[in-house]
Specification:
Subcellular location: Membrane
Strand content: under 5%
Pfam families: CitMHS
Protein name: Sodium:proton antiporter NhaD
Main location: membrane
Family: Belongs to the NhaD Na(+)/H(+) (TC 2.A.62) antiporter family.
Number of strands: 0
Shape: globular
Distance between the termini: 41 Å
Number of helices: 23
Largest sheet: none
Number of domains: 2
Structural class: mainly alpha
Length: about 475
């Protein structure tokens, strides 16, 4: 409950009036948007959005899913805006602004939908369970496991969403450290820092990086300039924690996980899908979501093939299973209902996705009302861009980094690529400062309940903060030519 209050209240009070300023040229080249900041419609819309956030804060107490008040708020805000513009005889301008915000959300939704569908498919294929089993049974020391899980999640999170990657490695840490709570606590902190750092040097690593890529502020390959700063961000606190880790080995029972037929091919298709999305964006200048949808078609056709064919597991697939801890070359055929692609889509976090729709569209409406300029002038007018981006990154310990990135993007600040990279870095790794600062942290508090806590994370906040500023310094050093 505490993390909801911190993050949602922070978003409501600090950045609600910032987001979603649609480009007026996309709506009507001849007319400027109306300034409704002191109009009854502006006050009403702001009150509605704050009320929706308050309702979302108390989701656990009221048992009212957070998406419901946000969807209603978005609808009321845009109904109000269009009504006022209609009275002025120019409702088409407001409708066009709504469509601009809607298109932004739809591109994000389709990209995430395909990505999460593939992840659900790989989960059903026992890919993640096999990886966990392979790690657990390698007879490694606590220190070795600490570094292996950290490095693995650092690289996995550049293509897999942070929560999934964090929970995957968190399951390994909890399993091997069941008799050593100190290792579990340190391992979870390490995973959170590594996950957030790894997701910051790839446009596929999180919503904030995806936003920057989709808006064309940085090209796909430019994100990889953050690899060294992100690695520094991960290594500084990890090295500090290394010397407090136990040196002995955990005693664990072996576990065998058999990969079903088609597992390797699904992983391969996911890689192909990412490649298609990148090539669509870079070569054809189509939205990355178009490439992801093409990849979804490939998965659907492959599932159709698996459903219709009756052959047993091939030797090649058996070797892959053995590598990850499996060993049964006569694994049973996957059931038909497990190959239903729409079942994978249905298991997405729809409440969160619809909540995000309400937040983007509602806050987008508040921005279109006219609250954007004052905040933009304060951040990027009175402060230097570097200081503004560092402060925004620190605030991501309390407010969702996707919301903050969308806020800055809608300000349209005139900053060089180096500053966009700095903002991407700080927003990506700033959430590591607190346990409630990112989705992996919140997820691991539930997964390792009683062993990894808010207070145990706070003890290492100075080391994480040192890594935060160290990564910024390295970015200024190695990417000086981008400023």
């Amino acid at each position: 409950m505490v993390h909801r209050v911190f993050r949602l209240f922070g978003a409501a009070t600090l950045f609600l009036p910032v987001l979603g300023h649609a480009d007026p040229q996309s709506a009507s080249p001849a007319l400027e948007p109306l300034d409704l900041t002191h109009h009854w419609a502006g006050y009403f819309s702001l009150a509605v959005m704050v009320a929706a956030y308050v309702a979302a804060m108390f989701e656990e107490a009221t048992e009212l899913r957070k998406s419901k008040p946000m969807l209603l708020a978005a609808a009321l805000i845009w109904f109000t805006i269009v009504l006022v513009y209609q009275q002025q005889g120019n409702d088409a301008q407001a409708v066009a602004a709504f469509k601009v915000n809607l298109q932004t959300y739809m591109e994000l939704l389709l990209f995430i939908m395909v990505s999460m569908t593939y992840l659900n498919a790989m989960e059903d294929m026992q890919i993640f369970a096999a990886l966990k089993s392979w790690l657990v049974t390698k007879n490694l020391t606590y220190r070795q496991l600490f570094w292996i899980t950290g490095w693995l999640v650092f690289f996995i999170s550049c293509v897999v969403n942070g929560l999934t990657a964090g929970l995957l490695m968190g399951a390994v840490v909890v399993a091997v450290g069941k008799d050593n709570p100190k290792f579990v606590s340190l391992g979870c902190i390490n995973i959170i820092v590594a996950t957030n750092a790894g997701g910051s040097f790839s446009p596929l690593g999180g919503i904030s990086t995806l936003f920057v890529w989709q808006h064309g502020m940085l090209e796909f390959t430019q994100f990889f300039k953050l690899f060294i700063p992100c690695m520094v961000n991960f290594l500084v606190p990890a090295l500090a924690m290394h010397f407090t880790l136990p040196k002995d080995k955990p005693t664990l029972a072996a576990e065998v996980v058999v990969l079903p037929r088609g597992a390797r091919q699904v992983v391969f298709l996911f890689g192909i899908t990412i490649a298609i999305a990148v090539s669509f964006d870079m070569s054809l200048h189509l939205p990355a979501a178009a490439g992801m949808m093409a990849g979804l078609a490939l998965l659907q056709f492959y599932y159709f093939y698996l459903q219709k064919s009756q052959r047993r597991t091939t030797p090649a697939e058996s070797e892959f299973a053995l590598f990850f801890g499996g060993g049964d070359s006569n694994a049973n055929q996957i059931e038909i209902d497990r190959l239903d692609i729409f079942e994978k889509v249905g298991r997405l976090e729809w409440d969160t996705l619809l909540f995000f729709y309400g937040a983007m569209m509602g806050i987008g409406g508040l921005g279109y009302i006219g609250y954007l300029d004052a905040v933009s002038h304060t951040l990027y007018g009175q402060l230097s861009p570097s200081l503004a981006n560092i402060l925004i990154g620190l605030s991501s310990a309390f407010v969702d980094n996707g919301t903050l990135m969308f806020a800055v993007l809608t300000m349209h600040p005139d900053i060089p690529p180096g500053q966009w990279l700095l903002l991407t870095l700080t927003l990506g790794v700033g959430g590591s400062l607190l346990a409630i600062g990112s989705a992996p942290g919140i997820g691991l508090m539930g997964q390792a309940k009683g062993q990894y806590t808010f207070s145990s994370h706070m003890k290492w906040c100075p080391a994480i903060l040192l890594g935060y500023f160290a990564s910024i310094g390295v970015h200024f050093l190695v990417n000086a030519d981008t400023f």
